[in-house]
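Example 3.2
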Amino acid sequence: MPSAVVSRSGIFRNWNALYLENAHVCVVVIPQLGGKIVSIQSRASGREFLWQDETRPYRSQRYGDEFGNYDISGFDECFPSIGACNYPDYPWADVAIPDHGELWCIPWQSELTDSTIYVHAYGIHFPYHFEKWITLGSDAASFEISYRISNLSPFEFKYLWSAHPLFAAQEGMRIVLPSDPEVRFAFALGNRISGEFLQKYRWSMLPEPSGGLVDYSLIGSVALDANDKVYANAPAEGWCALHEPQSGDFLAILFSPEKTPFVGICIDHGGWPFEGIPGYWVALEPCTGCPDRLDQAIAGDEHKTLAGYGSAEWSLRVHLGQADSAETISQIMMEQGRRVG
């Protein structure tokens, strides 16, 4: 394939999809399914980085349903909350926010240009416009995701946003977080880790129910039958990564720690959902607040606020590469620089 970007419409798992591809990476989006990125594939190794579940076909979502009733795959956006809750403040007090937010369960509008997929949607129960641009360079193993939220009301609007990519897991993979940041326990299904809600630890050793310690950065077997989550303070270096040492493949996400001050890390070792084939994925989730529920984040002053008729912009960069160690990934990320904001 030549180094130039190819942008096209096509079909992905029987759904209309938009493609961006060059010699290094192919990105596929289905606007109808919440603007979901359904595939991130390395051209160098052929690895599909996003979790795919062929046993749960894509289907149109019903607004307000639980996220777990659908395909549980790909890269969605969670906004204005991750966990289901009621908005706590005037003028939307007690308005329900669905599980994983409003955006994943509504169809988005889209436009395709030579190097960019633009997708956007409007809030259902809240007055906002959410926009996303996915841009691929002609000769780069990385792509940019730029975001903008606009408040369409005269009242301030409090929110959480979280990227929600589910990366396909493999035993022996490592999560790489520079500078070993402080992390907070969020939840645990199964017996891999334990803790009190929002209890603080230092990456990457977390307590087991038995009283020992487990290296949370190391991905184990799907047979562990566990699903758990922590929140890390965003490293000052502005990136996190998932590395498969045997092949050398890695995927890194670069971000602004000022605009996205947390990284949610959720690992599913076959512990959820409770029916069908076990999920086996790693979610690395740069996000604007903590914990999952907006009402709790507001109570803890760990949220963002849009002024009346205000807007906010931020971006991520997703980089695919090869490395023999976490140290090499760190060097590559230093060379990449943090050119996102």
